[in-house]
Description:
Strand order of the largest sheet: 3-2-1-4-5-7-6
Mean pLDDT: 84
Oligomer: single chain
Number of helices: 10
Structural class: alpha/beta
Order of helices and strands: HHHEHEHEHEHEHHHEE
Helix content: 40-55%
Distance between the termini: 18 Å
Amino acid sequence: MFSLTTRTRVRDSERAVDWDAYAREYDHLLLQNPAYLDVLSLFTSALRRYPPPPSAAALDIGSGTGNLAAVLSQVRPDLHWFLLDPSPAMQRAAARKLTGRTVTPLHAGADDVDLTGIQPHLITLMHSLYTLPDPQGTLRRCAQALPPGGMLILCDIGRPLNVTRWAAYLAHTSVKRQGLRATARLLRATGQVRAQNRAIHAAQRAGRYWLHSPAELRGAVQAAGLDVLEQRLAYRGNSDFLIATRSAEAGRP
């Protein structure tokens, strides 16, 4: 059985961004973002190349509004998804998207759950690892929870977010796809997203959110006890996409 532990303090990194406020507008902007949709496609392709066993448990850490689990559940509707996220608003949005699927919501922080009790064969992290209090510790706990042959698929923002450059990119792509009026409505409706993105950038500059190079992320994954199978840049060079496995020879620590 998996269990939740009680948090005894509020961490600085958790105060940096209001994830509940982010959740209310999150999908309006990101689902209009071609770079974000490309990342979802990378996960989909990886799931097809490295398929889990039938009806396996899959754990999405920092599941947000459930976009990743919703997309991957279309590829593999038999998987039992555990959605780990401390934001009630994010969890509510995810539940709506995954109606009819086998889903267990875990309303907690990433380091507050016994991952080994879930017995996941697949663990995913999409743009969440860098925000966690102990990213390297989370990677170690993921490695310990996976069985030999289990998969870790992650995409993580490793470089400082240039909020102005991203705003210009999103406005430009939106105008091309849906015109000026629709873009103006979109921008009016997503003020919280921009505010929270600025908070993320401030947390990165303050050292509260993990910044890493591709080599540093690969090294952290390998140090956790996983074998890296594939790695590439993603999200316009701001993120690193990586697929790793726990080797068949590895035993549990």
